[in-house]
Amino acid sequence: MSDDLVFDSPFILGMMRLHERPEFDDVEKFADWLEARVDQGLHWFDHADSYGNHLGEQRFGEALARRPSLKSRVRVVTKGNIILPHRDTSPFGVKHYDTSERHLTQVIDGSLSRLGVDRLDHFLLHRPDPLMDTEATARALDDAIAAGKVGAVGVSNFLPEQWRRLQAAMHNRLGVHQLELSLAHPDALFDGFYDAILADGLAPMAWSPLGGGSVFEDVLGTALSRLAEQLNSTTAGLALAWLRRLPGKPVPVTGTLNERRIDNLLLSGNLELDRPTWFALLEEARSHRVP
Fold first, then answer.
1. How does pLDDT run across 227-284, given as a tens digit for each residue?
2. Which of 45, 51, 60, 194 is catalytic?
3. Global pTM?
4. Which residue ranges traverse the bilayer (predicted)?
């Protein structure tokens, strides 16, 4: 990937809950929030066309239109191919996946329009589609890159043979894999999944890096609190540092839009864990010692 497509911030701000924040109905207020984050060096934002029934991308685009100077400073990841039930025009009203050439072209064009950007830095297939015609899907993705609509393409939640089948049909390299990974969900580190991502040259992004808050509960939460105090960190910052210690340095996609929490995460952005600390946290998370 070119340098401008490399994730160069300690974490990416996930926009999944943006539409749920009533205070950000005020475009000016959200534009202020957005500019403050970019000024902090947090210029990567993770979207999906399904978030908030397109409202997340739309709200983001409205803020950029209000602050045109931010347009060249932000970097955008978005995902597509999920059809939510209310958008299914069939009699079934069923949630499903669509990786057809026509649909992906519409998704990419729609996201560009709503976000108000000239290019999607990364476009990811959100979920693997059992009905995927790899030749058609690959053609849509390659054409989007050739047209300058997308900087790089990747996948989310794909198994190795699923992304390899797609890659075999493509001219461009897949650049990113977004997977669920955290202290609360470390299985990918032990079943070969994470190793396959690195072996195939995909940059890992970790969604739900705090396990939806479950890392703060029970024995693991107690251990994080104790260590965070010793390391002059926060529990959330320590959990993200645990992720960044991995080979490939997976970039966490955080879900919080709370300024104070974001500031606290930034304070721990350079925290580095030694091996004993990393394994001690793993032991607490799995409730047993390594073999």
1. 889 998 899 999 999 999 999 999 999 999 999 999 999 988 888 999 999 999 999 8
2. 51
3. 0.95
4. none
